[in-house]
Model the fold of this input.
Amino acid sequence: KSATDEKSIQRVESVSLGQPKQSSDMRNVQIRYQKPATAFQHPNAGVMLTSLHWILNTLTKVAEQHRTTTIHHSQRTKLRLLEMYNGAGAHTIPLAKSMVLSEIVAVELDERLVNACRNNCRLNNCMKGEASDQDQTLVEVFKGDAAEWAAKTLRCIRKKTRLSNDSALMNASNNGANNYNEFDILLVDPPRQGLDATVSEMAIKGTFSQLIYISCGRRALIRDLKLLCTDFDLVDVAVIDLFPGTDAVETLIHLKRKNC
Done:
C-alpha cells in the first residue's frame, strides 16, 4: 500500500440547509469532510454543490408534506432514508445535518470510502451509537455491494409475504431485520453504468414512497427510468452542465410512487 493511499484531503464547507419548518428559510451549517486522496471525487465542485442544494430542497419539501399529512396520526413524523453508492458521505453528512430525516442508512462497496464516511460522521457528530446528541439525524454506514443489499431486501420482502398470515412468525422475522426494510426514501448515486437490475427491483417492491436518482450516465438513466416509471411518477428533474462545451451532464431525478 503506497503512502499516497494513507493521505486524505480535508475540506471545511459552509453549506446552506433548508429549515424543515419552512423551506425558504436557510441556515449555514459547517460541514467537516475528509476523503482518501486516491479515491474518486466529483470532477466539478460547483456542480456538486448545486446538486446537493437541489437534493436538500427536494427532501425538505418531501419531509414537510409528510409532516403535514401525519401530524394527526400516530405515524412517524420524520422519514427514514436508504442511500446507496454514498462514497465518503458528500451527500450523507449534509442530509444528516439538515435534520429533516429520522435516520440514514448508507451503503458503499469501496472500503476506503466506507471508512472515510464513518470518520466524517464522527467529525460531524452524527454517527449512530456514538453521537452525543441522539435526537438528531443519525447515520449508520454499511460496507456492501448495492446489488447484494437489494437481493437481501428482496428476500426479506418475500419472507414477509409468506409469513403475512402468521402474526407471531411475522414479529419474530422482523426482529433485527429493520436494516433492510421500512425505508421511506431511496437515494441512489450510481456509477455511469446505472443501477443493477436487482436495485431497481428493490425500489419497486420495497416500501419506498420517494426516490432520488443522481445520474452521470444518460443511457443507463433512460433504461432505468423505463423500469422504475412502471411504479413511480416523475415529479421533478434537473439537468446540470458538468463541463461546458461537452455533452457531459448530471441529471437529478425525483420520483414518487404512484397513488402514494
In short: The radius of gyration is 18 Å.
